[in-house]
């Protein structure tokens, strides 16, 4: 066998072996609508479009989330995303935590959220200026501004 074929064979073998490495569960826990965040429809629609795949129990898993190694990083984003903020279980948070998360939302939508690797594959999730304003207005309780340096 030529070197090229040997290298290719190793790649294919590694790829196949990857598929059998167990990783955390790709699942959606049951949704209790009573615990879900209650916000005006226009705010909810933006969260659903741009955030719910990582920050809710209603993740729409794309087919490539079943293929290692892509699946590892996607599942990890969802697990960590739900840990940081879960709109499906929002009402389990204390008022203090909700206030902190609203500040976090206000702050992160100007930068890292939704995550760039996600936007690359879901261009529609990218927030427009108008959507950012709607979310910031909500997160600041209509004040339009939060001092985010104080955490
Ligand atoms: C592709 C997955 C993904 C998407 C989509 C996504 N997030 Fe996140 N988000 C994460 C992960 C992972 C973390 C936790 C790790 C971190 O802080 O970087 C996180 C953390 C956060 C935090 C907590 C950060 C902090 O320091 O307080 C907030 C707030 C947040 N996201 C808001 C949003 C909002 C709002 C959207 C939609 C506009 C969104 N995210 C979309 C994956 C995602």
What does this protein structure show overall?
The protein has 151 residues and is mainly α. It has helices spanning 3-19, 41-50, 52-55, 70-84, 95-108, 116-121, 129-139. The chain has one domain. The chain contains 7 helices and no strands. Helices cover 51% and strands 0% of the residues. The model has no long low-confidence stretch (mean pLDDT 93). The radius of gyration is 19 Å and the shape is elongated. Bound molecules: heme C. Heme C (HEC) binds at residues 50-51, 53-55, 77, 80-81, 84-85, 101, 104-105, 108-109, 113-115, 118, 127.
Q: List the bound ligands.
A: heme C
Identify the overall geometry. Answer: elongated
Count all strands and give the number.
0
Largest sheet: none
- Kindly state the percentage of residues in helix: 40-55%
Task: Let me know the average pLDDT.
Answer: 93
Distance between the termini: 61 Å
Total number of distinct structural domains: 1
* Backbone CA Rg: 19 Å
Strand % is under 5%
**Structural class by helix and strand composition:** mainly alpha
Q: Unreliable segments (pLDDT under 50, ≥5 consecutive)?
A: none
The string of secondary-structure elements, in order, is HHHHHHH
- So how many helices? 7
Oligomerization category of the chains in this entry: single chain
